[in-house]
Amino acid sequence: MTREGALELVPIDLSPDAHGNTGVPYATTFDSGEPGPHLMISALVHGNEVCGAHALVYLLESDVRPQRGKLTLAFMNVAAYHAFDTGTPNASRCLDEDFNRLWSIEVLEGNGESRELARARTGARSRPRRAAAYRRRCRARPRGTDA
Ligand SMILES: [Zn+2]
């Protein structure tokens, strides 16, 4: 029996996936070798989201692999996760700032400094041009259309 609101999952060891294979720590890509979409599944945008870490480890260890295109599995705010304490689970949601509020060109390329921003910049350093192109496409699409 567990107390209401008690944590039933405990942190899982991520060290086997720390190196990854993408040049970005804790990010692993599986390439089918066939043309197709590139899907990324992320976990641990917030350091206290332990269930996502378990889900990603399950995918890494269960041979879920793309038949076409690529699949990237990435643990995001690992530093906050490493600070996770079951006694104060919300304390490790972020170290310095919300990782999920860093995803604009202005923030990524700005003068801000934080542990979350350093991690976001690690994964995003090759993406600004593509992100800017995506934003232009979004602005060009009239609202209310799904084209
Ligand atoms: Zn979250």
Model description:
With 147 residues, the protein is α+β, with helices and mostly antiparallel strands. The protein has a single domain (16-140), classed as 3-Layer(aba) Sandwich (Aminopeptidase). The protein contains five helices and three strands, in the order ββαβαααα. The protein has helices at residues 50-61, 78-82, 105-108, 115-124, 128-140, and strands at residues 27-31, 38-43, 70-75. A three-stranded mixed sheet has the order 1-3-2, covered by helices on one side. The longest helix has 13 residues, at 128-140. The N and C termini lie far apart (50 Å). The mean pLDDT is 86. Zinc ion binds at residues 45-46, 49.
CATH C-level: Alpha Beta
Instruction: Note poorly predicted spans.
Output: none
- Rg from alpha-carbon coordinates: 17 Å
The total count of strands amounts to 3
Main attributes of the structure:
globular, binds zinc ion, 147 residues, three-stranded mixed beta sheet, 5 helices, Aminopeptidase, alpha+beta, 12% strand
Give the structure's gist in a few sentences.
The protein is of the alpha+beta class and 147 residues long. Helix content is 30%, strand content 12%.
Task: Tell me the layout of helices and strands.
Layout: E1 27-31, E2 38-43, H1 50-61, E3 70-75, H2 78-82, H3 105-108, H4 115-124, H5 128-140
Parallel strand pairs: 2-3
Antiparallel strand pairs: 1-3
Bound molecules: zinc ion (ZN).
